[in-house]
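Protein Record: Sequence and Backbone Structure Tokens
======================================================
Tokens: labelled as protein backbone structure tokens, with as many entries as the chain has residues.
Task: work out the structure tokens from the sequence, keeping to the layout shown below.
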Amino acid sequence: MKTAATTAAAFALIGAAPAAAEVDVETAYILNTFSFLINGALVMWMAAGFAMLESGLVRSKNTATICLKNIALYSVAGLTFYVIGYNLMYMDVSGYIGTFSPFWGPDDSEALAGTFTADGYSSSSDWFFQMVFVGTAASIVSGTLAERTKLWGFLAFVVLLTVIIYPIQGSWTWGGGWLSELGFSDYAGSTIVHSVGGWAALTGAIIVGARKGKYGADGRINPIPGANLPLATLGTFVLWLGWFGFNGGSVLALGSAAAVIEMANVFANTNMAAAGGVVAAMIVTQLLYKKVDLTLALNGAIGGLVSITAEPADPTIGMAILIGAVGGVIIVLAVPLLDKLKIDDVVGAIPAHLFCGIWGTIAVTFSDADATLYAQLVGIVSVGAFVIVVSSACWLLLKYTIGIRAHEEDELLGLDKAELGLEAYPEFGQGTQAL
């Protein structure tokens, strides 16, 4: 994503296009701000998509807990990004890190005085748009570690993720830091958002361990199906819709014809990459297993979306379909691989967000003439190493202090009853008497 804090030059180029002269600077300011707000709202709606997807793929005895975790993590992410995260990511970045201070609020005095620039926007709209991305990274972790992590232990990790991990590595590229200077390109966050969430989820899954009964002592893998596949399907469609804001809003402008054309290309490529991911996942599962798996098709859509996120503006629609299709194939091959390694990923978030995030970041070099494979690989490896080290330290710290793994009895009973004292579907609970 070309960040609002570091793309004045890019906006100036857009404003220099012949069509920009047809829009006065105040109108451009309004349209740029509107783009942040409406696309940010779409990204916020992805929180609902993650909640529904994860609720559909866990067992009914854990549904209320995963719903609570999703609304809680989004709220925590907003608070932490206000207190420290935004300025740590964007304010006075000196190569590796920004400033430890809160985002004190809007600084729109020039606009209020009637002084506008064609590349301008309300600072609060920028903060809002950047904040909803943090919630997305945290949502990835909740799905992988569902059904066996304590509520407060998980939320403590969310604090560490959103205060330390996400903003520091984000400053390296979107804050104008050292990866940006190297030439690393990640338009909307295949690495900076999705792989970061994927690495954090992977380290957590290894340290927390698998759900009881998932893997047998004889090496057998015991499938644990979700309780509500229609809800998971609806959640995928909601995520698909929200992704138009995720990628489209990353144009960071709407005040010129050039910006509008770019956003239209981003929307089209985002949509078709997801479609390519779904169809590819269906074909490969049919060939390998003689049947089509719905959950793999759903993750195929997400894998395609993650794959195109690193560069959704430059590819042709045909190339976007192929990039998304490779993401769908990665999903089908990576899910059984994790099971063979006894890494329990409840919703398949690690293949979709981590593996496809890596692929999408490499695929930038296919359509962006300024991107180099060297810079892309350095970005992938450096962000991955940073997240692995820091998130592992965070998980281990929580494990040996407040604890992150639910007791075996609580896990068998279900976290809804054990931690919340309620059920998501009480009329279907054990011992319920008919009215």
The CA atoms of residues 182 and 395 lie 31 Å apart. The chain has 16 helices and no strands. The first helix runs from residue 8 to 15.
